[in-house]
Write a structure and sequence with these properties.
Elements: H1 9-25, H2 32-51, H3 55-62, H4 70-77, E1 78-83, E2 96-103, E3 106-113, H5 119-124, H6 132-147, E4 152-158, H7 165-169, H8 172-185, E5 190-199, H9 200-204, E6 211-215, E7 219-221, H10 225-232, H11 239-246, H12 250-256, E8 261-263, H13 274-292, H14 297-309
Parallel strand pairs: 3-4, 4-5, 5-6, 5-7, 6-8
Antiparallel strand pairs: 1-2, 2-3
Helix pairs in contact: 1-2, 4-13, 6-8, 10-11
Length: 315
Amino acid sequence: MAYHLEFEKPIVELEAKIVELKNVSGSGVNISDEIARIQEKADKILVQTYAKLSADQKVQVARHPNRPHFSDYIKRLVQDFTPLAGDRLFGEDCALMGGLGRFRGQSCVIIGQEKGNDTESRIKHNFGMTRPEGYRKAQRLMQMAHQFSLPVISLVDTAGAYPGIEAEERGQSEAIAKSIETCLRIETPMVSTVIGEGGSGGAIAIAAADRVLMLEHAIYSVISPEGCASILWRSADFAKDAARALKITAQDLLALGIIDEIIEEPMGGAHRAPEATVDVVGDHIEKVLGDLRGIDGPTLKTRRRQKFLEMGHKV
């Protein structure tokens, strides 16, 4: 069943009308001019709508279930992907996936959160909310990349780290902090891309990279708008106000110097053209890795650490 956002309703209604008319046209009635007219109107509304999305609308787009997920990027961009499981301490966490593969001919380590595409897979991957063992697995893979001089590609898409009591008992905060530290210590190129939600420490644990890219309608924040509203206003009803105040959009974050580049999405969002989105993300990652390839390890580490230490000084 198709999933549509509330603000897309006028567009969806026109698209449904087009499908209806095409079915009539197939019965021998020529109404191609009418179809073209409605299609032009739908395209115009789509462009106008997505050109002025508010912060809370971008939150909805970033969370759209039809946006390409980690597994979609792997299937289209990475050859010979070999997933590696477990943290060698407690167990496996399917919320954070990672392994070895060849990205456009270059061997690398790839890590990222997977939300799942249906009820069964969402439960398996815990909706992309990583537990401590997931972050420790990420540390293990990043250290392996350092050992064998392989670049690291991370794809961020999580509402946040798993907040359950068992995660806290197993050292959730320490695991996130250690993962960030590992990002900053490895002497190999690291590129991170926020492809959907970049939620709190759950995101930055694998996003303290040399270059942080972000899809046009993705979000990246210290807390969800609903969580922020519940704390400040004691009600999630103020989530729209929180989204605006948090500066969570790619455009806000680029201006603040938190991210390095915005990747433009197909008109209407990544959920309308998943394959095209994956391809353009791959192009940007390939370019950035090319820019970083000639820099020696110690210099990469020094620049990366300095980059994050300087954040906030220019605001």
